[in-house]
Prior knowledge:
The complex is a heterodimer.
Chain A: H1 2-36, H2 43-62, H3 70-96, H4 104-126, E1 141-144, E2 147-150, H5 151-173, H6 175-185, H7 187-192, H8 197-223, H9 233-243, H10 248-272, H11 275-278, H12 280-294
Chain B: H1 4-21, E1 32-39, H2 46-65, E2 73-80, H3 85-98, E3 103-105, H4 110-115, H5 117-123, E4 127-128, E5 148-149, H6 155-169, E6 175-180, H7 183-199, E7 204-208, H8 216-224, E8 229-233, H9 237-248, E9 254-257, H10 264-270, E10 278-281, H11 291-303, H12 312-331, H13 337-345, E11 373-378, E12 381-384
Parallel strand pairs in B: 1-2, 1-3, 3-4, 4-5, 6-7, 6-8, 8-9, 9-10
Antiparallel strand pairs in B: 10-11, 11-12
Helix pairs in contact in B: 2-11, 2-12, 6-7, 9-10, 12-13
Amino acid sequence: xxxxxxxxxxxxxxxxxxxxxxxxxxxxxxxxxxxxxxxxxxxxxxxxxxxxxxxxxxxxxxxxxxxxxxxxxxxxxxxxxxxxxxxxxxxxxxxxxxxxxxxxxxxxxxxxxxxxxxxxxxxxxxxxxxxxxxxxxxxxxxxxxxxxxxxxxxxxxxxxxxxxxxxxxxxxxxxxxxxxxxxxxxxxxxxxxxxxxxxxxxxxxxxxxxxxxxxxxxxxxxxxxxxxxxxxxxxxxxxxxxxxxxxxxxxxxxxxxxxxxxxxxxxxxxxxxxxxxxxxxxxxxxxxxxxxxxxxxxxxxxxxxxxx
Amino acid sequence: xxxxxxxxxxxxxxxxxxxxxxxxxxxxxxxxxxxxxxxxxxxxxxxxxxxxxxxxxxxxxxxxxxxxxxxxxxxxxxxxxxxxxxxxxxxxxxxxxxxxxxxxxxxxxxxxxxxxxxxxxxxxxxxxxxxxxxxxxxxxxxxxxxxxxxxxxxxxxxxxxxxxxxxxxxxxxxxxxxxxxxxxxxxxxxxxxxxxxxxxxxxxxxxxxxxxxxxxxxxxxxxxxxxxxxxxxxxxxxxxxxxxxxxxxxxxxxxxxxxxxxxxxxxxxxxxxxxxxxxxxxxxxxxxxxxxxxxxxxxxxxxxxxxxxxxxxxxxxxxxxxxxxxxxxxxxxxxxxxxxxxxxxxxxxxxxxxxxxxxxxxxxxxxxxxxxxxxxxxxxxxxxxxxxxx
Lengths: 308, 390
């Protein structure tokens, strides 16, 4: 029995780390949705692009002595974030602006096309080989009690927490954050009270790209770098829905729940009940549907009540 | 005068009959042999889709530069199936009907190859060296078996050998297996089932989906089950993450891998976690001192390709190209599909310049080699630690 509990606790820890990865991607979904009501299906691909850019810079810096260690990684990371700023602006220019007055549906279709294009272009640039980025935090493992957690996973968890807290504060306490929220409620009214709506839209794409880059950089050493890594976004999407689409803390709550369910169902549940193995793929979806039946807006989502 | 008409008629009929008897073989002209290949160029195994045909072309170009096979140049045309069996069927249809290829070669993946079996049968077209090690490829109870010439040692045999090896290392070993939940894994499990019966044990089995990136639950289960030796039926990413995940949990069994995990990037990418990882392989390594490997390295360097491409998969394409060329050589100047089948059936103990244990086919034998060598990873480099094991 203690064996089972020990295993379960370890799976929960691993599941939290996995869930925080989902949370980082889900956060990107949430940011864009919060300000523009658009679901950006290219979020996973943005993460992939960010991770590749970081990897290219790290590799290029490897040849320079002095810059082949932590300093090089920091420089590469700064470079990738700078790229994210430019790329976010670019995305706003080519997706958001031209389609501003079109139905939300058109913008969503544009993001799906963007996902396909990014995958194809990156495959042309980077080639088809899976790349093996090394973790900047080494391969160290920390042991607490009977539980193991890798240093890298700790960084993933803490980055997710920091980013979620940061954005939560931003949306609720800062002028810009409130302006963004107002824009999402009613862009017309927002522009009437003097909120620079265009700027708000641009910033939100930039934020989302930066978050994606951070996620990608942290994720790449764990899942290895591949142009198909963006498909993980498809798993982060239900996480965002579960937590409550559009809710910043919901991203992490949904992500962690998904991660833990996934790991425990593949682990302990499958171990003691072999039939669970057969339905591993759908366990998270069953939970998702169950939650949505009870709380249609997700766990932390706010129900929209409209006056008619 | 009156006789002339019937004579002309008879002459014409004889002429047409003669022509019909010598119907040209599709894909073969006096100067060229066209072969068809279907790879995964944009799906989950796309990196192999690039490396394999590149390796094959190294050898085909080498043969072409020497004048080709019986004066004919070998040309390979490619389609993409994205590891999707339905797309593989469509691609095979295009290659056979539209492009009129002489034979199929190197189609990647167990499921895609299984899917096109009926087309092989229907068109009487050979498929040489499918790029999968599934033992089902040489199964004579399946449709179209006659047309598939499998080169590699089956996953089932490999799994069998690895279980034996685990018990050789430690008589009280507890063996576990983590496998991809598809045709590949199924063939691994067939071998595992045989080994279970032979040793009278139960082996713990954990599955993962193709394309999975997280294996914490499965690794945890192997740990809970007390597996001391874990066989990994993955490709490149899976063994790396599985071993890293185990290391991050403080779980250190002896990891053993089926041949697709033998890629040197597994050794590079797994770092300390992969120290001592042992994988089976059905051929000598690309960096071995066999004549075939030396020729490969020489041609690779001449081609000026990115050195990152060099490795197991690229070499795999190279060595199976040798088998196809051997068959084409044996089939002689008057090349037909049946002729190629008969010629390949005559191949006995072909070692591909020292690379294989010996590929033998026969009228009722479509399994090429049935032996493996074991390759160990120490400090990021791989070396062979065993003789051929059958």
